[in-house]
Amino acid sequence: MLGPVILAASRSDRMRRIVTAAPGTKQVVDRFIPGETVDDVLPIVRRLTDQGLELTMDVVGEDITTPEQAEAARDAYLELIARLGELELGPRVEMSVKLSMFGQDLEGGVELSRANVRPVVEAAAGIGTTVTLDAEDHTTIDRMLATHAWLREDFPQTGCVIQAMLYRTEEDARRLAESGSRVRIVKGAYKEPAEVAHQSKAEIDKAYVRIMKILMDGNGYPMIGSHDPRMISIGQELARRAGRKMDEYEFQMLFGIRGDESLRLAAEGHRMRVYTAYGTDWYGYFMRRLAEKPSNLRFFLRSMVSKG
Fold this sequence. Notes:
Elements: H1 2-9, H2 13-21, H3 25-32, H4 38-50, E1 54-59, H5 67-86, E2 93-97, H6 109-126, E3 131-133, H7 141-152, E4 159-163, H8 169-177, E5 182-186, H9 201-217, E6 221-225, H10 229-241, E7 250-254, H11 259-267, E8 272-278, H12 283-292, H13 294-307
Parallel strand pairs: 1-2, 1-8, 2-3, 3-4, 4-5, 5-6, 6-7, 7-8
Helix pairs in contact: 1-12, 5-6, 8-9, 9-10, 12-13
């Protein structure tokens, strides 16, 4: 079970130094994170939207230790939104944000993160798009959902993410499915204790299917975040049984993973969104991508050997 080991390494400063200095790292990072600046990624956004895909953009960076860093994160999103507005890409591109990046874990963090995220949500609405609040580890979920409810009072299109691995998520899904909100379901990419989360892939998969059914049968807008062909097939069948049209739910995949499948689903008429991250503070995001799939780790190790 390499996944938990890699997730633990994602919090290690020593491993951060080793990985970021490794000769083969950049080759693999570029697979998942196509740039460090807005100017780097806008051509990617153009190319993907021209191919019939939609996007959700994530400015990576979670290790916020000062209010000034949280404000800088806010400003990075505002710059992105302004540039998307200039290109009239708003309706095709939403934002994904982690509240930790806006200062949620600092002193007075709930108020600070809300003060920083609200201008981003307002700006997104101004160009015809929206924001989805990403899920983080289980200790943050109540605060994220509270902020989600707070934002939806004025911006009801604001989305949130729930994780199938957590025991609590089925109940969260039942509440959210009845609220008309936009909900992304993922398996989960954090190392969680057995007291709060399923530990085996089989149990997580079963929970994922149960939660998909709750969302498809509800009144919200389900966003199925998965690269698993079986889950995608089950999601299509659950949507059919629930009487949903193709524009009443969507699939989401990460940039750099199963790109051909994304294009295939879009060509069939499904709404298909690509989660695209960029920025300089990529380490935590990158390590979770390695932990999620053994083939990603093998690719990284081969790159290190070939470049070493």
